[in-house]
Amino acid sequence: MEKKSIRRLLVVSVFMIIVSVCFSSLLQTSFGKTEIIDFRIPTENGQWLSGQIYKPKDSSSDNKVPLVITEHGYLNNRHMQNINAIELSRRSIAVMTFDAYYHGKSSSASQPVMEAVAANGVGMIPLVEFAYKNLDYIDNARIGVMGHSMGGMSTWLTLMYYGSQYYAALEEAKAPDSEGGEEVTDSELKYANSLNKVTAGLPIGNIRLSSEEVFSQIHANFGLIYGQFDEGNYDLSQGNGDLSNNAPEGLVAINSIFTLTFKKTAKEKSSNLFEAIRTRKITDEDIAALDKPIQVRFT
């Protein structure tokens, strides 16, 4: 009897494992609507990046879809981002998850890990370039990046990398000897936009990077998730992660949706941004001046 019970338990256990694996696969592929493609992409200096593409099956060169490139934290690998990839891909958004340099099946980088974060987002920037040039089912006007912890820092820096190229091109276009003189022509603006290959970003964490200098280099739709007890909260200007008490990092992020003139007006009326906006009459001209719509979410 005891041997029969053990055998039955073994059979039931194996059966449950098989069912669980099959059901997990169905969830991961949105019940067959998403194709998961493993990749290993060569980058510079003999390095490579390994990861997966969650490709909606209805995407093609004739039916282009948005792309989100998502990066894990320092002590994780690409599978930490599976839940984001599953939820986005089932909404017809392609997703690239990857092992950052020094992680998982990817190679090391030519720099130490934190220097690699600053240089290329430990792989995020090379993947943007790869997708932009090689994936014909991706809408290049709708490429976004997101990440948590180390991946969040890579997201900030990737947005700055492309945004700074955009603003540099606009400055060159305003030179007296440029095509349109001090006026930016349509072709000059088109060229500047072509350099800004990332149009949206969602860093999760690392709000300590939130400053006017950083936002002056970002030209993208921007979201931000940060918890009061998130990592590094002790390193913020007020010594904690409470952003509700006029924390400079939070105010800068929210205030970044306005043009410089609008920001100064709000600051002159009150040190409390929310009160300043509440008591100020926002005109149609103010709304028209919002050249970078940004959504900020604090959790």
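(the above was protein one; protein two follows)
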Amino acid sequence: MKKFEYKVENIKAFGVTSLVLTKEHENKFNSLGEEGWELVTLNSLNNPRNLIAVFKREISGGK
């Protein structure tokens, strides 16, 4: 059976009337992707400018 580990990142979005993610955010997501992390979900909670990104990656070996 596959096993996964999860990572939670707090993302601060910008913008006045709509949310804007910057090139810096894109670079961070790409960096995590290169490490094997896959974005599962991106949600806002109470404040729409504060986003929660959940990533997962498969655990290899006996971790």
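Reviewer note on protein two: The helical segments are 23-34.
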